[in-house]
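Quick one, C-alpha cells below:
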C-alpha cells in the first residue's frame, strides 16, 4: 500500500505529527499491518499537503523547533475512501523466526527448542494483550482484532503441537554422521 494512503489512514483517526504517525506504526494499532520509516512518512505527508489532501500547521513548543501537525482534508478523506475499494495485495509474512527455523538444522537442537519456546511465549503475550482490547473499538477494529487472535492462536497451537517432534528430529539428525557427496568420498576420482 502506498505511504500516502497509510498516512491518510493515520490522519483519519485525528490530527498528528509525522512522529506520532511513526509511533502508530511502531506501537499503535498499525504495528500489526505495516512497518514504515520516517524516510517514507515525511515525503508522503509533503505530497499530501501539495495535493490538497492534507493540511499542515505549526505548533510552538518550549525549547524545541515548532511541531508540524497534519490533518486530513475532505478531498483526502474522499481519496482514502476510494483507495479502500482497491483489492488488497496478498498478505506477506516476514519473520525472523521463520527464517531461523528454515535453517534450524544448522542450530544446536537446544537452541532451536529455546527459540520455539520463546516464540510460543511471545504469541501468548500478544494474545493476552489482544484479548484485553476494549469492546468499544469500531466494528472494523473488533473484526481485525479477532482475525489477529485467530492467526496468533493458530500459530501458538501449531508450535506447541509440533515442537517436541521437530526437536526430536533435529536431535536424531544431529547424532548421525552426515553423508558426503560421492565426489568427496575417500578414494573417489577428482
Amino acid at each position: 500500500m502506498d505511504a500516502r494512503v497509510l498516512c491518510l489512514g493515520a490522519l483519519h483517526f485525528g490530527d498528528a505529527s509525522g512522529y506520532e504517525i511513526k509511533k502508530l506504526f511502531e506501537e499503535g494499532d498499525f504495528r500489526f499491518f505495516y512497518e514504515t520509516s520516517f524516510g517514507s512518512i515525511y515525503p508522503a505527508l509533503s505530497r499530501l499537503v501539495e495535493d490538497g489532501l492534507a493540511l499542515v500547521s505549526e505548533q510552538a513548543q518550549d525549547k524545541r523547533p515548532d511541531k508540524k501537525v497534519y490533518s486530513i482534508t475532505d478531498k483526502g478523506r474522499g481519496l482514502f475512501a476510494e483507495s479502500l475499494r482497491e483489492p488488497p495485495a496478498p498478505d506477506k509474512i516476514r519473520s525472523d523466526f521463520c527464517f531461523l527455523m528454515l535453517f534450524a538444522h544448522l542450530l544446536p537442537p537446544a537452541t532451536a527448542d529455546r527459540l520455539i519456546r520463546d516464540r510460543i511465549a511471545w504469541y501468548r503475550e500478544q494474545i493476552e494483550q489482544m484479548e484485553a482490547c476494549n469492546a468499544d473499538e469500531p466494528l472494523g477494529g473488533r473484526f481485525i482484532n479477532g482475525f489477529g487472535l485467530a492467526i496468533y492462536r493458530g500459530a501458538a497451537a501449531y508450535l506447541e503441537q509440533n515442537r517436541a517432534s521437530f526437536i526430536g528430529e533435529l536431535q536424531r539428525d544431529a547424532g548421525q554422521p552426515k553423508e558426503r557427496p560421492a565426489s568427496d568420498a575417500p578414494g573417489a576420482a577428482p
